[in-house]
Amino acid sequence: MYGNIFDTHAHYDDSRFEEDRDELLCSLKVKGVSHIVNCGCDLKSSLSTLNLAEKYDFIFAAIGVHAHEAEETTEDDLAEIEKLYSNKKVVAVGEIGLDYHYDFSPRERQIEIFERQLILANKLNLPVIVHDREAHEDTMNLLKKHRPKGVVHCFSGSAEMAKEIVKLGMYIGIGGAVTFKNAKKPIEVVEYLPLDRLLLETDAPYMTPVPFRGQRCDSAHIAYTAEKIAEIKGIEAQELIDICNENAKRLFNIT
Ligand code: NI
Questions:
Q1: Using an 8 Å Cβ cutoff, are 202 and 218 in contact?
Q2: CA distance 169 to 147
C-alpha cells in the first residue's frame, strides 16, 4: 500500500458520491490519500466544494466556472464566486478552460469566461486548474497571453504541446487515461515530461484507471495511475507519488 497520495483533481460534490460520501472520504485517508483538491465548476459546486474543504482537513478547494457552465453563469454568480477566494482553504481558480468537444456553451462565451478567470487568478496570485478538450490552440494562446501559474489537467495534448506548457512554467496533470489500452499520446507525454512538472490526479468520479475502468473512480485509484507512470519513468511508484506530492504542495502553496 502507498502513502502520501495527492489527488490534484476530484469532484466529491458529484451526485455519484451522494450515498456514501462521508464514509468514502474517511476511508481514503486509511488508503494513503494525504491531500485532495476538489474542483468546482459553477457557483453551486464551488460552494459545495468549500463545504467539503471546511469539513475535511485534507481537502482543499479550487473554485471557478467550467467551460460547460460558461453560458449559464451570470455576473452575479461571478461576483459571488469572487468573494469565496478569501477563504483560506481555496488554493486555486478552477476548473476553468475550454471544451470544444461538447461545445455546451458558445465558444466566444467560453473564451470570455476563461480569460476573465485567468486575469482574476493572476490578480489573486493563485494558480489555475485548466480544462482543455479539443481546444488546444485557443488554450495555448490564452495561456501564453496571461502566463498564469497552474496545471493543465487530464492532459490530452501531444508531447510537443506539453513542452510548451512546461516552458510557460506550468504543470501537467496525468490521470487514469495513461493506463488505457489505447494510451499512446499520454505515454509519450509522460516519457518526455520532467518529473518536477508532473501532477497526479483522478478527476473522480470519472477517468477510472485500468483495471477498474468503467466503475466510479476515487482518489485511492491513483495507485494504478502512479504504477503505470513509474514504470514508464523507471522509478518506484512510491517515489513517484512522493515527488508528485511535493510538486502539488509547491504549486498550491500548501505547507
Ligand atoms: Ni474535472
A1: yes
A2: 8
**Residues above pLDDT 90, as percent of the chain:** 99
pLDDT at residue 60, rounded to an integer:
98
Separation of CA 38 and ligand 1 centre (Å)? 9
> 8 alpha carbon to ligand 1 midpoint, in Å?
10
- Averaged pLDDT for residues 6-26: 97
Rounded to the nearest whole angstrom, what is the distance from the C-alpha of residue 205 to the centroid of ligand 1? 9
Q: How confident is the model at residue 20 (pLDDT cuts 50, 70, 90)?
A: very high
Q: Please give the distance, rounded to the nearest whole angstrom, from the Cα atom of residue 191 to the centre of ligand 1.
A: 24
Residue with cell 485534507: 58
Instruction: Provide the pLDDT confidence category of residue 171 given band limits of 50, 70 and 90.
Output: very high
Measured CA to CA in angstroms, residue 126 lies from 56, 81, 148, 160, 213 at distances of 21, 14, 8, 26, 33
- Tell me the three cell numbers of residue 161: 504541446
Q: Per-residue confidence at 218, pLDDT binned at 50, 70, 90? A: very high
Ligand 1: centre distance to CA 172 (Å): 14
Domain boundaries, the chain: 5-252
CATH topology of domain 5-252: TIM Barrel (3.20.20)
Give the DSSP letter string of 1-25: ----EEEEEE-TTSGGGTTTHHHHH
Please give the distance, rounded to the nearest whole angstrom, from the Cα atom of residue 69 to the centre of ligand 1: 13
In the reported structure, the alpha carbon of residue 228 is separated from the centroid of ligand 1 by a whole-number distance in angstroms of 21
* Helix ranges, 85-234 (H): 107-124, 136-146, 159-167, 185-192, 222-233
Question: Among residues 179, 164, 170, 137, which one has the least CA distance to residue 152?
Answer: 170
Compute the average pLDDT of residues 73-101. Answer: 97
